[in-house]
Sequence to fold (367 residues):
Amino acid sequence: MQDPATALTLPDPLPLDSGAVLSPVTIAYQEYGKRAADGSNVVVIFHALTGDQFAASPHPGTGRPGWWDRMVGPGKPIDTDRLCVICANVIGGCLGSTGPASERPDGTRYAQSFPVVTIHDMVRAFARMLDELGIDRVHAVVGGSMGGMQALAFASDFPDRAERVLVLASAARQSAQNIAFHEVGRQAIMADANWNGGDYYGGAHPDAGLAVARMAAHITYLSEKGLTEKFGRRLQAKGDGKPGEKSFGFDADFQVESYLRYQGSGFTRRFDANSYLYITRAMDYFDLAEEHGGRLADAFAGASARFCIVSFDTDWLYPTAESQHLVRALNAAGAPVSFVELSSPFGHDGFLLETPGLDEVVRGFLT
Fold:
């Protein structure tokens, strides 16, 4: 899954929250737009769990448009005619940044010997990359879902390095329900006959388990309303175009079954199973308040940024209550914050799709 994208290797080892030290550390990234000499027009985009650095350019493995192509580009809400966007693959990822599929100094793959990483480790690595690029302070950090967690961690860990923080469909902690969903996915991967304790790089990969993990997770990204409108209980059409009929077996009779299987199989062509385990674990460990004696407001005590928090009314993965909890903490810390709940049929995926009002919020906050 490694890709020869623009990459930077950090000059020094990276201490991790676990106590381990990672070295060498390479971070693969993409840059869109022209950077000001002092970096003052830089917008950092942190990607979500299954994202990567190709926010606004074709994916090298699939050829598909960037995962946020509708939002980032010339004249778009994150306007690269005036802003410079930097998006990097997280450490632990599988698209060029150092992760379990990477080679160790001795030439073997890390696999399960890769150290466990946290959201803060990911952000710390990114800050080191900004140092190497000569960027002290950025115009904004932006992130949805896991990317929102990174944006919050960046604002807390480096309070003077961002003027604005935009968080979409995210939370300051991972809930028990979401940890449970992640565990189902991890167990599906590890139950695959090709798992081999994570050391599968020389042979068949645990694609069946990874596909099931993706299918289970993808359900949580959608809404019941959206699934009903898109698929309902409609059966698959026959090859001759005639209306579908029940097979009275376990083929994909329903359209929604076929859709999920497509999502799962496509995912295995661009993602590494070990990376999925490591990144979901990083999300599960995330609890910004825990690191500050249980008081979330203290996490933002030194923050100098303006915040904008956006939730979506059909998002049951990170519901609006999580955003409101975050807003109250920012208010308690005296941080300037705006909040909006947008109405969307897309569930958690609302931040990726054409949700009414989203473009205006993003453009307005970053202007």
About this structure: The chain is about 30% helix and 15% strand. The mean pLDDT is 94. The domain at 7-174+286-366 is CATH 3.40.50.1820 (Rossmann fold).
